[in-house]
From TrEMBL:
Coiled coil: none annotated. This is Carboxylic ester hydrolase. It comes from the Bacteria. It comes from Nonomuraea jabiensis. Its EC number is 3.1.1.-.
Length: 455
């Protein structure tokens, strides 16, 4: 399948949202680019999302919809992230098993893409849910507003618009997914990087209750935004664009102009950007870390990180020494979030389980950020995988990791012990050289857990 069109013959679904025409190829049905909200343009820009009205004509869902990303954050990314023009950026795609007699009620995974809350694309071929459909899971990928349009703390603007988009998308899924064979009472919200951070934000929010039943955060981090730092960025951004840093000022510039200006500022500031979910509104009344100690305790959670994230490239011995110190970006931003989340949920009724992805890409020189995605999605043949992982990534590891994720989405508890946030927490370790493909370990998060305990 290319990045835009679904293969196969037309297939029609009659949902509460209206008649939707997708494509079927073998056991997989794809319904792409379905708007769940009105296009956030004109008066709806910088406003809470408005539910899309019922389709009055059959909707052609044969190709991916428009993406919020207009300008990629980096010239080259590990994961392919196509930008697709258009105004209807609040859309979702569904990859579902083909009907099998009266069988239905498949569990559902709603996937949130990464990209630092500034970029990324739900149309990436690495997110194609064909292996999930093969294994009896409905996979939904969601687009949401990014950067200034999604997360700028502007006066007179509802905060956290990107999170509001995601909540509305979850509502659409609950109302419509049964028509596609999914079970609205078995929804797992999942994501990676900024998407994983969004999962933790939704889990910590009083608004998340009842909208999903399980949660998966891959390399998520607890990235609660700093409103003062964000406003400083907006001041500088306004000067660059020649507008006041207000809703009216930014509304006079196109999304492309704003995203390009953000990239230019990123280059000037050494890569540090500060837009993302921010506490202080009805969605996030307290910081995410505090909200995790209060909300979502009835939701089982699976989370973890790659062994090196953004710290790859060094010799194995050097990486091991830096990891033991617990001071790398990988440890302070990503692995610490796993330990902190487990600690915040130590009194939760539902369990928390940790994993660590350790397979080193021979191309990237470590278990780098995003390299676990083709394994969890079991898409080692997808475009861009060989360039990131080399010509022969271990298919057995993909089979095993994908099966673990499918089992969790189906409602099974992982086979390894729960985490509590204490030093020496158990975790499942995937792909460490010289070890079994998966091993249940103690102490994978030791350096970070000790650091958390000392605070």
């Amino acid at each position: 399948m290319d990045s835009f069109h679904a293969p196969g013959e037309p297939v029609t679904v009659h949902a509460p949202a209206g008649t939707i025409i997708g494509r079927r190829a073998g056991h997989v049905r794809r319904f792409l680019g379905i708007p769940y909200a009105e296009a956030p343009t004109g008066a709806r820009r910088f406003a809470p999302p408005v539910p899309r009205g019922r389709f009055t004509e059959p909707f052609d869902a044969s190709r991916h919809g428009a993406t919020s990303q207009r300008v990629p954050l980096f010239a080259t990314t590990t994961i392919p992230e196509p930008s697709i023009p258009g105004d209807d950026v609040l859309n979702l795609g569904i990859v579902a098993p083909a009907p099998d007699g009266d069988r239905g009620g498949f569990p559902v995974m709603v996937w949130i893409h990464g990209g630092a809350f500034l970029a990324g694309s739900p149309a990436s071929p690495w997110y194609d849910g064909r292996a999930f459909a093969r294994d009896g899971v409905v996979c939904v990928t969601v687009g949401y507003r990014l950067g200034v349009d999604g997360f700028a703390p502007l006066d007179g603007v509802h905060p956290n618009l990107g999170l509001r988009d995601l909540l509305l998308a979850l509502d659409w899924v609950r109302e419509n997914i049964a028509a596609f064979g999914g079970d609205p009472d078995r929804i797992t919200v999942a994501g990676q990087s900024a998407g994983g951070a969004a999962v933790l934000a939704l889990l910590s929010s009083p608004a998340g209750g009842g909208r999903f039943h399980r949660a998966v955060s891959l390399s998520g981090g607890i990235f609660g935004g700093d409103a003062d730092a964000a406003r400083d960025l907006l001041e500088r951004l306004g000067r660059r664009l020649g507008v006041p840093p207000t809703r009216t000022g930014f509304g006079s510039r196109t999304v492309e102009q704003i995203q390009q200006a953000v990239i230019d500022l990123r280059d000037e500031s050494g890569g540090r950007l500060v837009l993302g979910p921010c506490a202080g509104d009805d969605l996030l009344p307290v910081p995410i870390a505090d909200g995790l100690a209060v909300h979502g305790h009835d939701v089982p959670v699976l989370l973890g990180a790659t062994g090196d994230e953004f710290d790859g490239g060094a010799p194995q011995e050097t990486r091991a020494a830096a990891r033991a110190a617990g001071t790398r970006v990988t440890d302070t931003l990503f692995r610490s979030a796993c330990a902190r989340t487990a600690a915040a949920r130590r009194r939760a009724v539902a369990g928390t389980w940790l994993y660590s992805f350790e397979w080193p890409s021979p191309v990237l020189g470590g278990a780098a950020h995003c390299t676990d995605l083709p394994f969890f999605f079991d898409v080692l043949d997808a475009p861009g995988v060989a360039q990131a992982l080399g010509p022969n990534p271990p298919a057995g590891l993909a089979t095993l990791m994908h099966a673990d994720l499918v089992g969790f989405v189906r409602g099974q508890d992982p086979a390894w012990a729960r985490a509590t946030g204490a030093p020496g927490d158990p975790a499942r370790e995937y792909g460490r050289p010289g070890a079994a493909l998966a091993a249940d370990t103690t102490g994978v998060y030791d350096p970070v857990a000790r650091a958390v305990e000392k605070r």
